[in-house]
Amino acid sequence: MNKTSNTKRIILLAKPFWGKLIGISLIILLMSGINQIYPLIIRSLTDLITEGKTNFLFFEHPTFISLIILTLILRISGTILNRLSWYSSNLLKTKLLHHLREVAYKHLLNLSIGFYNQNQSGKTMNKLSRGTSNITSIITNVGMHFLPNVVTAIISIIIVSSINLPIGIASISMFVPFFMIRRLYFKELEKVEKKSQKTWDKEYSHFWEVLTNIRLVKAFTAEKMELNKFYKTVKKLIGLRTNMEKIHNKSNAADMLIEVWTTAIVAYSFYLGLTGHFTIGTVILMVQYIQMIREPLWNLSWVFWEMKFAKIGVKDYLKILDQKIDIKNIDLPITPDKIKGRVSFDKIWFKYPDKSGQKVFENISFNVPSGQTLALVGKSGVGKSTMAHLMVRFFDPDQGHIKIDGLDLRDMPLKFLRQNIGLVSQDSYLFDATMAENLKYGLPAATTRQMRQACKTANALEFIDKLPKKLNTIIGERGVRLSGGQQQRLSIARTILKNPKILILDEATSSLDSHSEKLVQDALWKLIKGRTAIIIAHRLSTIQKADKILVLDKKEIAEMGSHQELLAKKGLYYQLHQLQTTEPSKLKKWDIVV
Ligand SMILES: Nc1ncnc2c1ncn2[C@@H]1O[C@H](COP(=O)(O)OP(=O)(O)OP(=O)(O)O)[C@@H](O)[C@H]1O
Ligand SMILES: [Mg+2]
């Protein structure tokens, strides 16, 4: 991505605000126009004192009173315009910032799981917040300050040059060496700034992770270790900041040059006054205009560098927007009228897309007739959850087809697919909201009666009713105020409300004690009735009722059949069953206790 296209993209991102930006720019321009008139009034007033008569622009011999009234009118208009510009620019900045956040949020919501597997959320959040505020600062700086500053400088230069051309030329030329020196040091600054942003991003994402895993930090008494890591980064960042300030010190030579140059021009104006070439009023006017040229040009250089710096952060923001959404709808997806629920895996090959991703499946094929139950069994890490994730298209297979009722998942709308599949995961994924709000994720329009019914089926009602606020109880971040089993029951109730045609239960009852597990299992089996279900479970006792059991091993299907058939086969499933019903010494092919 080259620089110009980034600039173009920033401008395009602000498209909805172009009109307002121009409006504010004009107000600021008007203000600076008003400011340009003051030196002329002061000259006229001074000449009135020293010479008894004066001119003001096109008016010959204006009186003292008329000049004062004009000053008053200009001051009051200036104050009103100033307030108006602040009012509109502050509002514009806020709206622009939220617009940029919305653009990014929309994109982030649509990005595939693969992106989140490879990017830490803390880092992404930091990049986004820096990017959005940097773009806002670039756009407001360019829109509101750049143009008025340029115009102010040009008008001042024209006025100064019309009075004395050499002074006009001298005041412009002082900026050539100024910009050149600044430019020289900017390259150095840019490098350090990049490094410091990278360091901070890394630390911030770790800091975020530490807070999310605070229980782990405390349990391992790692507070001190984490603080030390933080100090180390802070030390590095302060070092980088010191470097930057040292570079700024060197580039201060440019400012000194401007001071010397302006003093020389001012001295020359006084010299012309002393030698009778300028009136006292003109000398005062020149001094004020030289200041007026210096200020906008100085501002311009500041705006220019600010923008350059801001662009470093913007790159990261644009990079996030550039992330391709790889799991998406095809151009003309097919929406079936009704889903019966026949699931088939046809010669599936899959490897996780990240660089070190391992092959998980090699040529896997199986069928689950509609309304039937398939249990997935296999040792930890064999790919059971991956299979569930392929079903909901968190990832797409590298080769082969996963189909529902004969239609490839990629050919149906993503929304339709996910609405028809209920996935109860190993993790419960709950929000820091009330239980009712969490349940409504399954059915946004759910009534209290429906929610209570679902909770009853999931065996969750008994603990919910014991709480003073019942369904309106806030459950904390990721549901921390609930026990593991309660979290699972709530997430099952959420899927019951969703009422999907196909159910995938990935260790859905693993956090329950034997008593609740039995109750929830009963509920789940009631729920499963009439639906296609894929059940992943380590405890074989919970899946014996499944129509078919599929044993995964070494990226392939090792065995498939009913509980009785597989026991009779005396293969892997039999060994696993023996292991769970007798003792670990029976362990043969299964190298870990499941
Ligand atoms: N997001 C991911 N990115 C890369 N590799 C992954 C990812 N998720 C899982 N894996 C790898 O894919 C393999 C299968 O993982 P999966 O979670 O499907 O196993 P599992 O059978 O569900 O295990 P368990 O019984 O412990 O839940 C593992 O080797 C794992 O390291
Ligand atoms: Mg798993």
Description:
This protein has 594 residues and is α/β, with parallel strands linked by helices. The protein folds into two domains: 7-322, ABC transporter transmembrane region fold (Up-down Bundle); 343-427 and 499-586, Rossmann fold (3-Layer(aba) Sandwich), CATH 3.40.50.300. The protein contains 19 helices and twelve strands. The protein has helices spanning 3-13, 18-51, 64-110, 113-118, 121-163, 165-173, 175-212, 214-219, 223-274, 280-322, 384-391, 414-420, 435-439, 448-457, 461-464, 484-498, 514-528, 563-569, 572-581, and strands at 55-56, 59-60, 343-351, 359-368, 373-378, 399-404, 407-408, 421-424, 502-506, 532-536, 548-553, 556-561. β6 (399-404) and β7 form a beta hairpin. α2 packs antiparallel against α3 (64-110) and α16 (484-498) packs parallel to α17 (514-528). Mean pLDDT is 87; it is low at 586-594. The protein binds adenosine-5'-triphosphate and magnesium ion. Magnesium ion (MG) binds at residues 384-385, 426, 506.
